[in-house]
Fold GTPase Era, mitochondrial.
Amino acid sequence: MAAPGAVAAAGRALSRALRAAAAARPGGAARPLESRALRGLGARCSGSSSALGSILGIPAEKPTCALGQHPPPVATSKEEQKRLLRDRPDQPQNPKVLRIAIIGAPNAGKSTLSNQLLGRKVFPVSKKVHTTRCKAQGVVTFEDTQLVILDTPGLTSPLKAKRHKLEEAMLTDPWDSMKHADLVLVLVDVSDHWTRNCLSQEVLKCLSEFPHVPSVLVLNKVDLLKKKYILLELVTELTEGTVNGKKLEVRSPFKHNLSSSAKTVLKNTQAFPPENRAHESPGLQETVKAQEGSGLDSSSDTRAPEPDRVTEAQGPKPRECRDLKNRKGWPRFQEIFMLAALTGEEVDTLKRYLLMQAKPGPWEFHSRVLTSQSPQEICDNIIREKILEYLPLEVPYGVTQVTELWEEGPSGELLIVQNLVVPRKSHMMMLIGKRGTVISRIAQEAGQDLMNAFLCDVRLKLKVEVKS
C-alpha cells in the first residue's frame, strides 16, 4: 500500500490556502469557497466524508451511528431459504428501500464490494474474469432501511461472450438489473492502467440506455495506486469534467510531482439550475501555483478568464446525442467514491450514502434474508471460485459440479459431498495436485467460507473424476 504522505500534504496545503484567502477578505468575511467546496466534499450524510475530500487528506467526521450490525446467516437448507423468501417482510413503521445495481467491466471488484456491503461473503470472488455467471440479490437491512444489492456479471460484448462460451444470461443480466434499479454504482478498477482512463463501451451503452437512473462513480482498488494525483485526473476523464451538473474546471495542466499535488485546490461552478439538482455535490478545480506558499485568490469571477482556463460551464443536455465510440466518460454521475473493496477501506462511507438515498417504500425481503440465492448455489459458487484460483488458463471453465450429498450431521454440522467432473485426465491431475495438495486446499478454503456464510460447522468433501 502506498504511503499517504503526498495526500496529507495536499490536504494541509489546501487548508493553508483557504485560511490565507479568508484572512485577505476585509473584516474576516465569510469564506464561500470553503463552505461551497469543502463542505460539498464533506459528509452528504451524517458521519461520512466525500471521496475527493478523503483523497486530499481532509479529516473525516466521526460516524454518528455504527454500521457494525451482525448480518444474518444464510439458511443451510433449501426449504428454509425458500420459506424465508416467501415470508411477508417484517415491515417497520416507516420503511425505506433502495435497489442498487452494481455494474462495471469484468474483474472490477463488483462481487467483493457487494460482500463488504453485506458484511458476509455470499458472492464468489476471483482474480479471473467472469467469476459471477448470473445476477443475484443481496439484502442489507439496517434499522428501518433495506438495501437490495443486484450483483451482476461484468458487462461484456457478444463477441467476447462467444469466445469464452459464456451463457446468454451474462449478456442480459446487467441490463435487466438496470431496469429495476433505483441507483447504479459504476465500478472502475483504478489499478488497471490499461482500462482505467475510460469507461468500457458496454458500460457507456448501459448508462445511455437508462439515463434516468441516478448513477454514482466508484473508483476501486485505490490502495494499489502509488501516485495518488492520478485519481484526480481519472475523475476528470471519467466524468467528462461534470459531476451532478457542476463543471469541473481546470485552470492549468496538472504537474506530476509532489509539490504540485500538494497545491491542488477544489472549486465548483454551477452547470445546472439549483431546482434540477437533488443535492449539493462536489466539483473539481485544479490550481497549480508557481510560487511556494502563495495564497488562494477567492475573489469574484468577474475578472477575465486565464488563457488555459475552461470557461464553458454548461452541463450535458438530457438528450445529448454523441457517438459512444468517441466518449470516454459519463457526465451525469451524481457522486464519486474512492475505496478499496478488498480491505473494506471507505466502504462504510459508501454504505452510509446509500442508506441516505433510500426512499419511503415497503421492504421486499424479511430482515432475516441476506441473499436470494439458495444455499446450494452459494456452495457451488464458492467452490468454483477456488477452482478458478488454483487452476490455470481455461481449465476451470470446463469443470462440472455435481452435489452428491447435502445433509445435517448428528452434531448439527452440515455434510456436503461434491463431485467435480473434468473433460480430460490431465485436468484431473492438475485439480488433484501432487499428493492431493490442490484439491485439499480448495476443500479447506471453501469449507471455511461456507462456515462464515452459514455460521455452522461444515464438513466438505470433494471428489474428482473424468467425464465418461
Observations:
- The CA atoms of residues 101 and 184 lie 5 Å apart.
